[in-house]
Design brief:
Structural class of chain A: mainly alpha
Number of strands of chain A: 0
Shape of chain B: globular
Largest sheet of chain B: 2 strands, parallel
Distance between the termini of chain A: 35 Å
Shape of chain A: globular
Radius of gyration of chain A: 19 Å
Order of helices and strands of chain B: HHHHHHHHHHHHHEHEHHHEEHEEHHH
Number of strands of chain B: 6
Distance between the termini of chain B: 47 Å
Order of helices and strands of chain A: HHHHHHHHHH
Oligomer: heterodimer
Number of helices of chain A: 10
Strand order of the largest sheet of chain B: 1-2
Structural class of chain B: mainly alpha
Largest interface: A-B, 75 and 68 residues
Chain lengths: 182, 567
């Protein structure tokens, strides 16, 4: 916990919602992504983030000074996201242990060189691939609706997304290997 | 079970990440990922990509998200918490817990005294005949049908009448009643969170007057919470002290339940019962195991010698095949010595115990699961157990797991256990007990439970057959009645242990605790007790309380932590 974060947390614990917003802000993107990974729904993940903020603010005085704030938020989000997943009757998507490993570090995934490389690769997407990524990831459009919109069958849409994933992986691998051939 | 090739698994992986995978495919995928390292790595890479994409999406919508946060903070009272607040799981802070527990005890006693004159049909005025013992002199037998009355609740039946179901307790408007079939609920899980400190209670007198007014003003009574249920059960158990005292075989279970239910150690009745237990000869596996658990919880330093004696008893009673039976006294218990603690020594001193004699050839899985709970407590109290004994126990569970699925090893398939090595199909109480037992063996032996195939298969069985309303599977001591109520509370306590000892918040995609708690709230009888058709009222009530209280401690090695730090 940085000095700034612990100072803001103390102020927030004293009942200042503005301080709480400031201390929460750097973790919101991670919380959203994490919640989405668990509950598998863009809009439900937004709800989870809101609920997480509410619960965390209400329970802020239970947070011990040496505790990891981001980890604590994640734990709250996890419970709310699991509840959301149940209410959406979604199944366990890829295994909770895989999710936990990928989200072990609460720091933004976009920050490291690998994250930057992926961001660059995403920016280079074109045509249907870009359309699918934008619609699914950035606008939260359901896959079958997106398929309708793009004049595709939902099976074709799922295959397209799979190909985009593989493409992005390959793009990142190439970029990183160019930078560091060893 | 169907299996995926790697190509199929990778395509399904994408569907899973897109949230469009069906449950059967998800199960097959999960099994594939467990055994295929390259696909598991790909799953992590895909998920990491998704993380980056979702974080970018969130950054792009940060204004919207922040606005939602602000709106949320302005409407704080409208959020429902799905489950209990997450917190780093520490050992129960005894000093504060005792203060709270003392407060509860005072209120419970006050409640008992004040209820007595007015309650109708309550425990204190019922005048029911004592439930236990029915035939306490029955000695251990190889077959459970003849040994059912031993303590705490062997997984065996006693022919009894089936009590009529109690009237349903009122539940909160937002709650969802536990369904007998594991269908995902349309709303978030219902049950109010368990908190370490009991919720404040009004005195019964205040309750009564408030209730009278409430009856006029609002027709819906206040919903019951796990704390309310435990308070009711504690009052019931307090009223049955004489029954427990007469049947000394049950005292360890009662004390363990009191300790978990918030009765302070300083309570006079607790003290009397504890004194009796400490002076008692170590005779039966269930009792010795529960005694070790109790003493380790109360003060593992102060009672280390007695805990070491429990360990000696348990080691000396292990059967040749790795199981435990009802047990017999061991003469080697008295010769156990524990060196006095060194003045400046930090932490818990280690005491090595070795097996001094062989037990009988075979036992049963009910005694075995409790023996391992006892050995876990001994391990946590600094008793060094011979690995060979723990290995032998683990081997028993591994060798006797059912092998009904056509899937070849090492794939994870739903497999379980019955009461012993029979050809019977597995059922809930024994399978949950088996999972917990293997988790304990792995813990003591320092192995990774996530790589324990038999444990994973057991969890898979519990997932496929998940239920909080009945003991799933064919109960072998009641004509193989499927999904029956027999020993359902014994099963729920075993399920609690399986979940906590494997660190699972979900079983079969269901949050086990809220569902279990709701089911227990629904089935509690008006006098605060629980009872299954073939169970004992007192034992079932204890099991229900232990389940509601999540009495099992997660597997964290406390023996290496100094007591002061642990507290």
């Amino acid at each position: 916990v940085s000095d700034t974060e612990s100072r803001l947390l103390k102020t927030a614990q004293a009942g200042d919602p503005k301080a709480f917003e400031r201390v929460l802000r750097p973790h919101l993107a991670m919380l959203f992504a994490y919640s989405r990974a668990i509950c598998g729904d863009f809009h439900a993940a937004e709800d989870v983030v809101q609920e997480t903020a509410q619960i965390a603010y209400r329970k802020l005085n239970y947070l011990i000074p040496e505790a990891d704030f981001a980890g604590w938020l994640k734990a709250i989000a996890r419970r709310q996201a699991l509840a959301a997943r149940r209410s959406l009757t979604k199944t366990n998507l890829v295994g909770d242990d895989v999710i936990e490993r990928v989200y072990q570090d609460p720091a933004p995934a976009t920050a490291g060189r690998r994250g930057e490389a992926l961001t660059e690769c995403i920016d280079r997407l074109e045509g249907r691939a870009a359309q699918a990524v934008k619609g699914h990831y950035f606008q939260g459009v359901k896959l079958n609706e997106l398929a309708d919109k793009m004049g595709m069958t939902s099976v074709a849409m799922r295959q397209l997304l799979h190909r985009v994933r593989v493409l992005l992986l390959e793009c990142v691998r190439r970029r990183l290997s160019v930078e560091n051939p060893t | 079970m169907r299996k995926f090739s790697c190509d199929e698994a990778r395509a399904e992986l994408s569907d899973a990440l897109a949230g469009v995978i069906g449950r059967p495919e998800a199960n097959v995928l999960e099994a594939h990922l467990l055994e295929c390292e390259p696909c598991r790595s790909l799953a992590e890479l895909f998920l990491w990509q998704d993380r980056v994409l979702s974080e970018l999406a969130a950054e792009a919508r940060m204004d919207t998200l922040m606005q939602r946060v602000r709106t949320g903070l302005a409407t704080l009272d409208q959020v429902s918490i799905a489950e209990e607040e997450p917190a780093v799981r520490f050992r129960r802070p005894r000093s504060y817990g005792w203060i709270a527990a003392a407060a509860v005890f005072v209120l419970v006693v006050a409640g008992v005294l004040l209820w007595k004159p007015s309650s109708q049909g309550g425990a204190l005025t019922q005048g029911n005949p004592p439930e236990i013992p029915q035939h306490p002199m029955v000695e251990p037998q190889p077959e459970p049908e003849q040994t059912a009355q031993s303590v705490p609740a062997p997984d065996a039946p006693v022919p009894q009448h089936v009590d009529p179901q109690p009237p349903q307790q009122p539940v909160a408007a937002e709650t969802v009643k536990a369904s007998p079939l594991p269908v995902p609920p349309p709303t978030p899980e219902p049950v109010q969170a368990k908190t370490d400190a009991p919720a404040p209670v009004k005195s019964p007198a205040v309750k009564a007057s408030a209730g009278a007014v409430a009856d006029v003003v609002t027709p819906a009574p206040k919903p019951k919470t796990p704390d309310d249920a435990v308070r009711g059960a504690m009052a019931y158990l307090k009223s049955k002290v004489a029954v427990f005292a007469r049947d000394s075989k049950s005292e360890e279970l009662l004390l363990w339940t009191w300790a978990m239910g918030g009765v302070p150690e300083s309570d006079p009745e607790f003290q009397t019962a504890l004194k009796g237990v400490l002076e008692k000869k170590l005779e039966k596996t269930y009792n010795v195991s529960l005694m070790a658990m109790l003493l380790e919880e109360l003060d593992r330093v102060k009672y280390q010698k007695r805990i070491a004696q429990c360990a000696q008893y348990l080691l000396d009673n292990q059967c040749a095949n790795g199981q435990w039976s009802y047990g017999d006294p061991s003469i080697f218990v008295e010769s156990v010595t524990v060196p006095p603690p060194k003045p400046k020594a930090k932490g818990l001193q280690k005491v090595a115990i070795t097996r001094k004699r062989d037990g009988p050839p075979a036992g049963d899985n009910s005694n075995t699961m409790y023996a391992l709970l006892g050995l876990r407590a001994c391990h946590d109290a600094g008793i060094v157990l011979p690995p060979a004994s723990v290995e032998l126990a683990a081997k028993w569970w591994r060798d006797t797991q059912s092998k009904l699925s056509p899937v070849k090893a090492p794939a994870v398939a739903p497999e379980g256990w019955c009461y012993s090595k029979h050809e019977h199909k597995p059922y809930g109480s024994m399978t949950a007990g088996g999972v917990g037992s293997l988790a304990i063996c792995d813990y003591i032996l320092g192995r990774d439970p996530k790589k324990d195939r038999e444990l994973l298969c057991g969890m898979e069985w519990l997932s496929k057959n998940f239920s909080v309303a009945y003991n799933p599977g064919p109960y072998e001591h009641a004509n193989f009645e499927e999904n029956s109520q027999h020993q359902v509370y014994y099963y729920l306590y075993a399920l609690e242990r399986a979940a906590i000892l494997t660190g699972s918040e979900q079983i079969g995609g269901y949050a086990w605790y809220p569902r279990t708690a709701q089911s227990l709230l629904d089935s509690q009888r008006p006098d605060g007790s629980w009872k299954s058709p073939s169970g004992s009222e007192l034992n079932d009530t204890c099991f229900a309380v232990l389940t509601l209280r999540k009495a099992t401690r997660a597997l964290i090695d406390v023996a290496t932590v100094s007591p002061a730090k642990a507290k």
